[in-house]
Amino acid sequence: MNILEVENLGKKFVLHLRGGWHLPVLQGVAFTVAAGECVAITGTSGSGKSSLLRTLYGNYRSDSGTARLRTEQGMVDILQSSPQQILALRRHVMAYASQFLRVIPRVSTLEIVAQPLMEQGLDQQMAGERAAAMLSALNLPRHLHPLPPATFSGGEQQRVNLARTFVGQHPLVMLDEPTASLDGDNAAVVQKLIMEAKHSGRAVLAVFHDPAMVRQVADRQYFIPSLSEHSHENPELQ
Amino acid sequence: MLTSSSPAHAPKPTTALGPVLIAQNLYFQFGNQIVLRDVSLEVFPGEVLAIVGESGSGKSTLLNLLYGNLTPSQGIVQAISTTGLQPLSALSQQTLRQLQRSRWGYVCQNPRDALRMTISASGNIIERRMAMGLRHYGTLRQEARHWLEKVEIDPARLDDLPETFSGGMLQRLQIARTLISQPALLYLDEPTSGLDVSVQAALLDLLRKLVSKEQMAVLLVTHDLAVARLLAQRIAVMRHGEIIEAGLADQVLDDPQHPYTQLLVSSVLPA
Asked: Which residues are within 8 A (CB) of A77 and not within 5 positions of it... i.e. 6 or more apart?
């Protein structure tokens, strides 16, 4: 059973401040991710791996294609969804961890991680307990939970980010270089979280910087097709 | 425990609540000058819609039209009232005031414009509750104390005049005074500009919590993209009286489509 079905996805940036420069980033992207499966996105640096995740999360707009996501109401095309629909998908169906945590002043680590659960309708106490357990699993001890993560190290912030992403048990989890700033022990925890997600029938789509992680957790790899030469032309500049 | 062994959360059926406010094809003119051109938007319960743009783009005029303080030259504003979705133009002046007082709240940029500077902080906070017919002094005072604490003002200041408050405290007092009636629709006009950054952070944090807890619908006018990102789920970008781009807040800020939005986003100085 596919959780995600991507077909012919294309994305380009039009840089109006650079005279309308067209910067294609994705073209003809097509793959599926099934329940219980981890698919690793691979490709050379700059091939659009992060942009692909952001487009699927609704953070970037797309120019072509479809990305159908399985929901209780059937398959929904993320690329055609309204902002309200995207927000609902983010609450219940898809989670995403960027490479860096966006820190909000005055908001505690516990609250950051509990928030997705509260948005799913859990009460504060239950959400707090689950968030604390997830943080502890990622080796963030309890005395850090009341603190805003602004002063945390890069690795600690990334673990807060991952706790927030995994805690909601979304059917689709998207991860952008989840272990890039983590030491071996914490990378092993992330590996365990991915395996648990797979075993519970969820789907994981990830970009890994570490080839060992790909071998250990990914069932398949999807190599992002390179952009054809003509797509680099900039008609507006010629 | 890493994760519970239960399967993925069954998605809750999304509550299909309709918009609390709908604006369709609004135009507004001062004499020959067109201030707003073909503006349409909707606001849903539990969401913050930020209207961003530079000063003079028509943001505040739009907010005043949506609040019923101004009447559009063309177009229609509809809002949920006690009798369902109604065009504001169909309401009597009295019914509109009633709607504004009982179901809406308006926080303006300068708290001195909204507060009564000659009556105590507690008097300011409970004014709306008294207008709603509550008279029990002890209960009202208890409520005033509760709201002062909510906006992080020392309850010992309950009987002080607003004159003795700092700018940031005045703004928090205005927010307490507005939110006490638990409005379904909240209008925020540059609520944190002109405040110190530390006060701004505290105030934004407060607003964020109150909004998500009370399932309010919020229209937030701001020129500050960081404020919009922090509070809003959706953003509409205004320029020369038009909405030139609208969408999911993080999408508009991270992948802006319109040349002007790209300019706005790229002009922000990183801290």
From this structure: A66, A67, A68, A69
